[in-house]
Amino acid sequence: MKLIKSLIPYIIIIVVVVFIRTFIITPVKVNGTSMYPTLEGDEIMLLNKLGKIDRFDIVVLKLDGENDNLIKRIIGLPGETVEIYDNQIYINDELLEDPYGYGVTYNIDPVTLGDDEYFILGDNRIVSLDSRVFGKIHRSEIKGTTNFIMYPFSKIGKVE
What we know:
By secondary structure, the chain is of the alpha+beta class. It is built from 2 helices and 12 strands; from the N terminus they run αβββββββββαβββ. The protein starts with a helix and ends with a strand.
């Protein structure tokens, strides 16, 4: 009985850590160069599984058939129409001031997003696999947002 009593604090700690990692926050690794220059491959970030999603948030998603998580930036929000032409992004026919895009992108016809749909782009538009290729993203495919680099330690801190 004394042994069980002494183990209870450790069991509680393990349960709390598992709960936090499963439902609130967890580390995620950046793969590839699609978010360059904002993020680079092999950086470790904190994924926030709670909260609202806004334009320009960096999100982590898991698509069917993909082995790795994808990390991209939210461009279009539910109910909006997104169009790209002449290397410019338009939301509901208004030019979007996009301070994050790097490189030339190709034109896409207008895409109207449903109530639970988002349009995402990688910052490195030249190489990014994103909504220009696989279309709209449903909210259920988004695991959460991320904006904090944990590793490498020389880059630790918040990113935009």
